[in-house]
């Protein structure tokens, strides 16, 4: 403003009016857009303006105010939410998409990406909107470039970028350079490389003018196809142990281009011959794909030849291939061709049926052998149990006879309490003797906490044995990994499983001494209750994870395994290693929820319930998991550096089963150990000199080597491994 009392010049007056008009324009624009605290802006404009506010501005202000009321819940949700606010932004984006204002849609996407730049799905939706709606070259390409820069591991973003560059007529050299960057991005699956190669090959194919017999673009396409096949064979297969293209889709597309667009069936046949040599000759659909290509662009002779080879090689659906061959000969073949086709198909189907019958017989024989082995094992266990019981009876009788002899001679029993001679009677009452002496005459304390436990064990010994009824397996679950020291397991488990349904019976398993063995059978009234009980698997009971599984006879189903967790790639789940053993589920959730909504956390423990420093964290979607990997990998938790990666467990090595038709070797004889077997910490008492002596030439005491008669004629044999019992026998013989 000019100084008070001064008269502005025309130039100053013009500048002043222009400045005032700019301020008016800014206020009108601000009041026409729905913003928070619009009422304060309107009051400020009303106070500042010397002229009345125009009617148009008031109308736009009221309209923006109405729109603000619609957007206000979403803005308040963003203000109250915690980072990264992905769900709140998604709801806001859906609202703006329904409204349809391109500027507001772009702005809300940019606001969301500012806080969630590592979420591939959000970038994909934004780029799709720009490609289909705005179609502005600079804006579209800039968004795609930012997307692949923030999420380079997502192959879908690279493919969209290549398509957008082709759509907006970007130079070929720039597109090729971008494709090379994509190959070096480091994708997490072998199939991702197949997809990016396929997208680039499609782009090169669209550049070729196939009306010309030969061109620079066509040669470039062919060299790219050859490079793609070699790249998948060497680079990708070396990294992932698979090419990612078992069906050879890239080579199939190459063959189609050669046959349909280049009229080069010779090259197409060479490619298909290469495809079949890669293990695809046994699949009927691969032969039929080749037949259809030959039918459309080749001749009948090659069609017939392909089908004859297919009949000979196909192992999955030979009937289908035989039918196609007969159809071809019925339409175009001569009588000789028809007879040859009928004979070939009949012979092939006869061999197939014979092979299937033999395979079924072998399968039945293996199943029968397995049942016989199971029965033998069961019988051996029963005999072993009976022999142990007889041995215990003999030991008890011997101890009783010794006690009778001692009573006859009037000798006193020496008690653990070291009572002196003359105190009390010389012979203990029968009840006291049962408490004082154990199974093998070892003294046990009659008082203390062991007395009620011994009483309970004695009461369980008297309970008659109940054999398992396999007809009730559908309403029964098998519970294991329980604590051996659990008191009254029936009452504890009845209370735990009562929420699933009516419990008919709980059969806890005890040993001969009456001690709980850590597993039991829980029988329900209804099958649905048993299915609900499976959800209690891994529930912590007295500090140990309780295992709950279906009740299945392993003798009849030896391959039955229950593993409730996925063993395949799960992009929304993380595997974390290096955690401190003291880390709890709540502490880990506090660390992980900063990067997304955590659905579940599983701390990996051993059978005793002790943590192993590993965990699986499940997020709502792949985007949140990807963001968490980048933010959490290498993070320090309680002085431990953790490693975070996408959950992709390695394949489990299954035990090798004998092939059908091959005679299985007899099982190796089990080595005989002592009466208690060989424990984990049992040391071999054999001297090292005897263990290492593999030469039949024995050393004499004076250090000279003595020749053995057998050593000169027989080849050196491997020394027989000796157990502690064998070594004890050897010492006793000396």
UniProtKB/TrEMBL annotation:
Name of the featured protein: SART3 protein
Domain RRM: 475-553, 572-649
Gene designation: Sart3
Location in or out of the cell: Nucleus
Signal peptide: none
Keyword terms of this UniProt record: mRNA processing, mRNA splicing, Nucleus, Repeat, RNA-binding
Keyword Metal-binding carried by entry: no
Ranges of biased composition (kind: Basic and acidic residues): 360-385, 442-464
Organism in which the protein naturally occurs: Urocynchramus pylzowi
Domain of life: Eukaryota
Record-level GO BP terms: mRNA splicing, via spliceosome
Repeat as UniProt keyword: yes
One GO CC term, this protein: cytoplasm
Biased composition (Acidic residues): 403-414
Molecular function terms, GO-annotated: RNA binding
Gene3D superfamilies: 3.30.70.330, Tetratricopeptide repeat domain (1.25.40.10)
Positions of the UniProt region annotated as Disordered: 360-464, 652-734
UniProt-listed InterPro entries: HAT (IPR003107), HAT_PRP39_C (IPR059164), LSM_interact (IPR008669), Nucleotide-bd_a/b_plait_sf (IPR012677), RBD_domain_sf (IPR035979), RRM_dom (IPR000504), SART3_RRM1 (IPR034217), SART3_RRM2 (IPR034218)
């Amino acid at each position: 403003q000019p100084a008070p009392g001064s008269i502005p010049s025309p130039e100053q007056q013009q500048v002043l009016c222009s400045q005032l008009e700019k301020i008016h324009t800014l206020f009108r624009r601000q009041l026409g857009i729905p913003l928070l605290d619009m009422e304060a802006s309107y009051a400020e404009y009303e106070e500042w303006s010397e002229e009345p506010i125009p009617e148009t501005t008031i109308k736009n202000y009221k309209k923006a105010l109405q729109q603000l009321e619609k957007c206000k819940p979403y803005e308040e949700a963003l203000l109250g939410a915690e980072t990264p606010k992905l769900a709140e932004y998604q709801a806001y984006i859906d609202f703006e998409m329904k409204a349809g204002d391109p500027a507001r849609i772009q702005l809300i996407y940019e606001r969301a990406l500012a806080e969630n730049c590592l979420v591939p799905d959000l970038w994909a939706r934004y780029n799709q909107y720009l490609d289909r709606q705005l179609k502005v070259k600079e804006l579209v390409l800039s968004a795609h470039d930012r997307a692949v820069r923030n999420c380079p591991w997502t192959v879908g973003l690279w493919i969209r970028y290549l398509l957008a560059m082709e759509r907006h007529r970007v130079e070929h050299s720039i597109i090729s350079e971008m494709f090379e960057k994509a190959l070096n991005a480091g994708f997490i699956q072998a199939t991702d490389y197949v997809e990016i190669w396929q997208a680039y090959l499609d782009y090169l194919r669209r550049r070729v003018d196939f009306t010309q017999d030969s061109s620079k673009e066509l040669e470039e396409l062919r060299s790219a196809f050859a490079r793609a096949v070699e790249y998948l064979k060497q680079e990708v297969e070396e990294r992932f142990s698979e090419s990612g293209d078992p069906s050879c889709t890239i080579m199939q597309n190459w063959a189609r281009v050669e046959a349909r667009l280049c009229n080069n069936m010779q090259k197409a046949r060479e490619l298909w011959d290469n495809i079949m040599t890669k293990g695809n000759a046994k699949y009927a659909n691969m032969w039929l794909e080749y037949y259809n290509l030959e039918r459309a662009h080749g001749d009948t002779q090659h069609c017939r030849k392909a089908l004859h080879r297919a009949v000979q090689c196909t192992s999955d659906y030979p009937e289908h291939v035989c039918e196609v061959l007969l159809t071809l000969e019925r339409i175009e073949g001569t009588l000789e061709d028809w007879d040859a086709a009928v004979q070939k198909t009949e012979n092939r189907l006869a061999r197939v049926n014979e092979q299937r019958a033999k395979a079924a017989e072998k399968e039945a024989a293996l199943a029968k052998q397995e049942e016989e082995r199971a029965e033998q094992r069961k019988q051996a266990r029963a005999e072993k149990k009976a022999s142990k019981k007889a041995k215990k009876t003999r030991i008890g009788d011997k101890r009783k006879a010794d006690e009778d002899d001692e009573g006859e001679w009037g000798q006193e029993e020496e008690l653990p309490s070291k009572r002196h001679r003359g105190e009390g009677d010389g012979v203990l009452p029968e009840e006291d003797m049962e408490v004082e002496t154990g199974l093998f005459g070892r003294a046990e304390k009659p008082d203390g906490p062991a007395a009620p436990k011994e009483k309970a064990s004695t009461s369980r010994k008297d309970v008659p044995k109940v054999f398992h009824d396999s007809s009730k397996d559908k309403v029964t679950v098998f519970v294991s990994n329980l604590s051996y020291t659990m008191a009254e397991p029936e009452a504890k488990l009845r209370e735990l499983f009562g929420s699933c349904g009516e419990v008919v019976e709980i059969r806890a398993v005890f040993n001969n001494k009456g001690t709980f063995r850590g597993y039991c059978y829980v029988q329900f009234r209804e099958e649905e209750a048993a299915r609900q009980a499976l959800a209690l698997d891994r529930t912590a009971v007295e500090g140990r994870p309780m295992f709950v599984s279906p009740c299945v006879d392993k003798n009849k189903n030896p391959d039955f395994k229950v593993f409730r967790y996925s063993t395949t790639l799960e992009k929304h789940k993380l595997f974390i290693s290096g955690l401190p053993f003291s880390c709890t589920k709540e502490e880990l959730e506090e660390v992980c929820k900063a990067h997304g909504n955590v659905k579940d956390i599983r701390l990996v423990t051993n059978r005793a319930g002790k943590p192993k420093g590993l965990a699986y964290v499940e997020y709502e979607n792949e985007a949140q998991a990807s963001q968490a990997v980048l933010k959490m990998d290498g993070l320090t938790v309680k002085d431990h550096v953790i490693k975070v990666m996408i959950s992709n467990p390695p394949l489990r090595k299954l035990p090798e089963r004998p092939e059908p038709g091959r005679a299985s070797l007899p099982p190796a004889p089990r080595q005989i150990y002592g009466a208690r077997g060989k424990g984990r910490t049992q040391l071999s008492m054999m001297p090292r000199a005897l263990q290492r002596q593999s030469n039949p030439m024995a050393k004499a005491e004076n250090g000279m080597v003595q020749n053995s008669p057998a050593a000169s004629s027989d080849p050196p044999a491997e020394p027989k491994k000796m157990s502690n019992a064998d070594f004890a026998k050897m010492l006793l013989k000396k």
